[in-house]
Write a structure and sequence with these properties.
Number of helices: 5
Distance between the termini: 37 Å
Helix content: over 70%
Radius of gyration: 20 Å
Low-confidence stretches: none
Strand content: under 5%
Shape: flat
Number of strands: 0
Order of helices and strands: HHHHH
Structural class: mainly alpha
Length: about 100
């Protein structure tokens, strides 16, 4: 799934927006999503043991780091805000645009 999103340059939501405005690449991407879902559903019995085969059970990132869900959400939010600010500063320097 991740490789398809990288190659296509869309996520499911933006691909639907692209289809709505008539972008042919978005239509192809959505077609690929439909084919991929169909292929996975039809071949699921072949992959079932792999998909459900985690010996540790269901893992969450907060469990891996040993922190609460709320703290993890806070950390990810702060990192995202800092990343947005930094990339905005870089964009302003590269494009020399003042807001």
């Amino acid at each position: 799934m991740g490789v398809g999103f990288i190659i296509g340059g869309f996520c499911p939501g933006t691909s639907m927006c692209g289809v709505a405005i008539g972008k042919i690449d978005a239509m192809a991407f959505v077609g690929g999503i439909i084919l991929g879902v169909f292929f996975f559903a039809e071949t699921y019995p072949l992959f079932e043991t792999f998909v459900n085969g985690n010996p540790k059970g269901s893992l969450k990132l907060s469990d891996v780091f040993g922190i609460s869900d709320g703290l993890l959400i806070f950390i990810v939010t702060v990192v995202a805000i800092v990343a947005f600010i930094v990339t905005d500063k870089i964009q302003q320097k590269v494009k020399k645009v003042d807001y």
